[in-house]
Amino acid sequence: MDIILKYFPDLTETQKEQFGALYDLYTDWNSKINVISRKDITNLYEHHVLHSLGIAKFIQFKPGTRIMDLGTGGGFPGIPLAILFPDSTFHLVDSIGKKVRVATEIANAIGLKNVTTRHCRAEEEKQMFDFVVSRAVMPLTDLLKIIRKNISKEQHNAFPNGLVCLKGGELEKEVFPVKHQTMVTELKDFFSEEFFETKKVVYVTVNN
Ligand SMILES: C[S@@+](CC[C@H](N)C(=O)[O-])C[C@H]1O[C@@H](n2cnc3c(N)ncnc32)[C@H](O)[C@@H]1O
Q1: Record's superkingdom (predicted)?
Q2: How far apart are CA 18 and CA 107, in angstroms?
Q3: Burial level of 16, CB count in 10 A (0-12/13-18/19+)?
Q4: pLDDT given at position 170
Q5: pLDDT for res 173
Q6: Low-confidence ranges of the chain (pLDDT < 50)
Q7: Among 60, 104, 115, 182, which residue is least crowded by beta carbons within 10 Å?
Q8: By alpha-carbon position, which residue is closest to atom 24 of ligand 1?
Q9: What pLDDT is stored for residue 6 in this prediction?
Q10: Contacts of residue 30, Cβ cutoff 8 Å, sequence gap at least 6
Q11: Atom of ligand 1 nearest to the CA of 52
Q12: Which residues carry a binding-site annotation for S-adenosyl-L-methionine?
């Protein structure tokens, strides 16, 4: 939890309590339904919560922004972002029902009012959003094909509506075929821990 305060020192008491509650909740739920590698649970705050919040080092969502987390699993990056941006709404989608259940239970347990969840393939989701966020789900080109139908034309933020993904390692092969405007932010410029050495936030505009 200290690592979250190190990089996000201005959290409200509510946000501190919500982030603080995640460790016991994920430890408990993960023992029943695997959403995080079991040996990685001790790294929950660094590898999962802070990594998710890396998106906030690229964009500060304006109040009222609508965001879908495609392939949220147990709620990453959607739940940490929903805590950090309580005035934006987050719709967490996953094709595996029991993972959606974990995300739903945890969002409810910490009293998040700005989160909805849905068990479906993102291909079936018809709602419109300003941004889609995603971590470890599928290549950029595949994500773009699925979400084109979901990106609203109304703009409210510092960057045009689009896709904001957490990616690791070698990206050139993934970014090269993408014809849209793309911006890559290195998380090692913000977070000094070795885990972030190769981690990136990739933003792609979606014009439709
Ligand atoms: C490796 S997990 C990552 C989960 C989470 N984003 C995280 O970083 O912990 C990938 C998730 O994407 C989901 N997924 C894959 N294709 C999907 C699709 N077309 N629609 C919805 N969810 C999908 C899978 O069910 C799985 O839970």
Answers
A1: Bacteria
A2: 9
A3: middle
A4: 76
A5: 75
A6: none
A7: 60
A8: 71
A9: 98
A10: 36, 38, 41, 74, 102
A11: 8
A12: 71, 76, 122-123, 135
Strand order in 131-135's β-sheet?
115-119, 89-94, 66-70, 131-135, 162-168, 199-205, 182-186
- 3-state SS, residue 33: coil
Q: How far is the CA of 197 from the centre of ligand 1 (A)?
A: 23
Can you give the CATH number for the domain in which 138 is found? 3.40.50.150
Query: Number of folded domains in the chain?
Result: 1
Domain hosting residue 34, numbered range? 2-205
User: How high is the pLDDT of residue 181?
Assistant: 86
Q: Give ligand 1 pocket residues (Cβ under 6 A).
A: 71-73, 76, 93-96, 99, 121-123, 135-138
ipTM of the complex as predicted? 0.99
pLDDT digits (tens, 9 = 90+) for 11-23: 999 999 999 999 9
Q: 117: CA distance to ligand 1 center in Å? A: 13
Sign of CA dihedral 183, 69, 14, 188: negative
